[in-house]
Design goal:
Blueprint lengths: L1 H43 L15 H5 L3 H13 L23 H7 L11 H4 L3 E7 L3 H11 L5 E6 L5 H12 L4 E3 L11 H22 L15 E6 L2 E3 L3 H11 L7 E2 L5 H6 E6 L4 E9 L11 E2 L4 E3 H7 L3 H10 L6 H10 L17 E2 L4 E3 L10 E3 L2 E3 L2 H7 L6 E3 L7 H21 L4 H13 L7
Parallel strand pairs: 1-2, 1-4, 2-3, 12-15
Antiparallel strand pairs: 4-10, 5-15, 6-9, 6-11, 7-8, 13-14
Helix pairs in contact: 9-16
The structure holds 2-acetamido-2-deoxy-beta-D-glucopyranose (NAG) (5 copies).
Membrane topology: Single-pass type II membrane protein
Keywords: Glycoprotein, Glycosyltransferase, Membrane, Signal-anchor, Transferase, Transmembrane, Transmembrane helix
Family: Belongs to the glycosyltransferase 14 family.
């Protein structure tokens, strides 16, 4: 009995000590947390602007020249930033971007949304571009992408994942409210990794963009006070991407494409059979998709040859319009609903199977296993030397990557993460701002640039004559 009492006493003491130890730890953690918050607040200087952080003092020109000392110095600064401390991951808080419409003039002027108005050629105004942007977290990163690609004469549709926080959704609404050419798609999806809804999210935006004039006429709440834009080409983006071509360059590229798309195709990818043979379902509770053993999918309809590609591309408006009225393509979409990662198969297969679209300008090069696009640059694991870190087998870009990526022929570079390296991102913004002005003055006859792009198109057997 006595023994039992002693054990109980010992046990109680143990619990008590553990609890005290726990409290000390919690206290330590919270003081650490406060210290970091204060430090970050100072850096962000919120009194100056809720919408932007102070500029980091680095020499981007040297970084672009791969200057070893400057890169070393920048890495040291980056390390000292405590970005991964658990206070908003070093990002501006999403709630900074929740504001009433009356604050829009401040937002627009502080963030310089109209800074390129005097650096826009008539051919850009005559050739509006549509964007479909998928986003689910980190308002600051989304806003900085929008800021880089925004032009008052283009049109921007945003899809917000249904599982995003209400703060995030509210912040994106506040931003969209400030512009007559930025809107949130009329139908939001709950996106599960590799599920059909990822593709559906793009479809929703594309449909709305094709139909926005009617939605405006019908006073749809998402399109109140928006304007009609006769866009000609569409780019779809994720908010972790960044453009390396100016709007003028895009217009020149799209004019060369002359109705063709730029879609990456990989004809020899081995994952197709597994991903397409089984039937997959959404499991919303566990936020994943799953397949049932032996539940086999039928062959794709209309003798479609499946190929893998990218979920992102550059698309002609007529081509996109056709998707939603062409019965063969609608059958294909229905079939894709229960496959794995259909966004990576849809665009590439559509492009390759020219019998699906009477006006297709794609000419397959039978010998080629890969058809390269100019829509995207990805630093793929295994074929790219990453200066940053790997995430889902794609390089998250950092200082040592910048010199290479700005010289890529692609339109968009994937990917940057502000919470990982906000300094490289700042350099990319400075570089792009300057490039817009330079290209504006160099004008429309930049033979080198166009020749280079043309030779690429010729290799791709487009029906372009340049
Ligand atoms: C950091 O914050 C996130 C989001 O608030 C939370 O889910 C996570 O548990 C936190 N991590 C740590 C180590 O405290
Ligand atoms: C554009 O140019 C006009 C006239 O030169 C000038 O008044 C205006 O401030 C400029 N706007 C911007 C955004 O630079
Ligand atoms: C094909 O192009 C012609 C001529 O531009 C057009 O009238 C027709 O509607 C197009 N068809 C499709 C399916 O886009
Ligand atoms: C563009 O520049 C090249 C080389 O300077 C010149 O040969 C060509 O005629 C110019 N084209 C136009 C349309 O001005
Ligand atoms: C562009 O396409 C149209 C019709 O699709 C064609 O008639 C024209 O020759 C093409 N232009 C060039 C420069 O390839």
């Amino acid at each position: 009995m006595k023994k039992l009492k002693r054990y109980t006493q010992f046990f109680l003491n143990l619990v008590l000590f553990s609890f005290i130890f726990y409290l000390i730890n919690v206290y330590n953690d919270s003081t650490k947390y406060e210290k970091q918050t204060v430090k970050n607040d100072k850096r962000l200087d919120l009194s100056k602007s809720l919408f932007e952080r102070d500029k980091y003092t680095i020499n981007c020109d040297l970084i672009f020249k791969k200057d070893e000392n400057e890169i070393k110095k920048s890495k040291t600064i980056l390390k000292s930033l405590d970005l991964n401390a658990n206070n908003s991951y070093g990002l501006l808080s999403d709630s900074n971007f929740i504001f009433p419409k009356s604050n829009c003039p401040d937002f627009i002027s502080q963030r310089g949304y109209f800074r390129f108005n005097n650096y826009t050629h008539q051919i850009e105004l005559d050739f509006p571009i549509a964007y479909s942007i998928l986003t689910y977290e980190h308002t600051e990163q989304f806003e900085r992408l929008l800021n880089a690609i925004y032009r008052p004469h283009n049109i921007y549709c945003i899809h917000i994942d249904l599982k995003s926080s209400s703060f995030f959704k509210e912040s994106i609404r506040s931003i969209a409210n400030c512009f007559d050419n930025v809107f949130i798609t009329t139908k939001l999806e709950y996106i599960i990794y590799a599920g059909f809804n990822r593709l559906k999210a793009d479809f929703n935006c594309i449909k709305d963009l094709l139909d926005h004039e009617n939605l405006i006429d019908e006073n749809h709440p998402n399109l109140l006070n928006k304007k009609k834009v006769a866009w000609k080409y569409l780019l779809n983006l994720a908010s972790s991407e960044f453009p390396i071509k100016t709007n003028l360059e895009l217009v020149q590229i799209f004019q060369l494409l002359n109705g063709s798309n730029s879609i990456y195709i990989n004809k020899v990818h081995g994952m197709i059979s597994h991903r397409m043979k089984n039937i997959f379902f959404n499991d919303y509770l566990n936020n994943r998709i799953y397949s049932i053993k032996k539940a086999r999918n039928n062959k794709p309809p209309h003798s479609i040859r499946l190929v893998k590609g990218s979920a992102y591309g550059a698309f002609d408006r007529m081509f996109l319009k056709n998707i939603f009225i062409n019965s063969k393509i609608l059958d294909f979409i229905k079939w894709l609903k229960h496959t794995y990662s259909p966004d990576e198969f849809f665009w590439a297969s559509l492009e390759l199977n020219t019998h699906l679209y009477e006006n297709s300008t794609f000419k397959d090069s039978k010998k080629a296993n890969y058809i390269y696009d100019i829509a995207r640059f990805n630093g793929w694991y295994g074929s790219y030397e990453c200066g940053g870190m790997w995430r889902h087998k794609i390089c998250v870009l950092s200082f040592e990557d910048l010199n290479r990526v700005i010289n890529e022929r692609s339109i968009i570079v994937n990917k940057f993460m502000l919470e990982y390296d906000p300094m490289s991102y700042q350099c990319m913004e400075e570089w792009l701002n300057r490039k817009v002005v330079e290209k504006f003055y160099k004008g429309l006859n930049e033979t080198y640039f166009l020749k280079d792009i043309c030779s690429l198109f010729r290799k791709r057997s487009f029906k372009v004559d340049c």
